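Lab manual, section 2.4: Encoding a predicted structure.

Procedure: take the sequence of the chain (265 residues), apply the prediction step described in section 2.3, and record the output as structure tokens. A sample record is shown.
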Amino acid sequence: MTKALLATVLFAVSGPALASGPPLTPPWPLDPYGGTNVERAAFHDGRVGVLMGRSPWSQLFEAWRLLHHLPVGADAGAALDEPCCDGSNDVALETAKKAWSGARRLVPGAPSQEWFSLDTERDIGNFLMVPNCFTDAFATAAQTLHDRITARGADDASVKAWLATQDAVFANCAKEVDLPPASADAPDWLKADRVYQEGAVELYRRHFAEAVRRFTTIGKDADSPWQKLGPYLSARAACACRTRGSNRRGGGCRGAAKSRVACRT
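Recorded output:
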């Protein structure tokens, strides 16, 4: 009777057994970015090792090439290893935005715009913000503006029109903003740049199928100064269309899926 009573009391006052020590954390024995420089060099040489599905798409692309017996190499591998979207490239993005802001100041009468006011993330719903404009976009725009100023002068009306359009392009990184009307009597170089800028806007608005169509057209235009970038940006838009979906402008992702691009996520 005494033993039974003691057992009942112990059961009543005892709670669930709790483990001591710090809270549980997921084990991270593997680095999704590929580990040390020595390990990355071995990867570039063809020793793929353990491939993680949460690795950046650029490294998954490297692995796809290696698994299909295609070379990557140290130079290309180092460029592809640099993550674009996890915060590690903040310094490069800041530098490119400063370069763009500095180039704008060369144009007389350009509206004031500080580099830190350039919003590069877009709200895609459900309180989720995603990076939408990256380092290369601002670096390319800054260099292009310098080139246009060198060729035509900072006070040229067509250069100012180009800048107004490019400002609207970058505004679309964060939200939809209409481009200023195109001039019917614009010079040929400005018309060619405008076609490229319109393609960039469709990409930033996440109209991926439409962006594929526009950049594919640019890639086939031998007279466009942007012809070489056309296939790359078409492929980028097609990959985004297949992995993130489209808002249906341009016919949805079915047409984009026909692009000769292997998207792996």
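Check your result against the sample. DSSP finds eleven helices and two strands in the chain.
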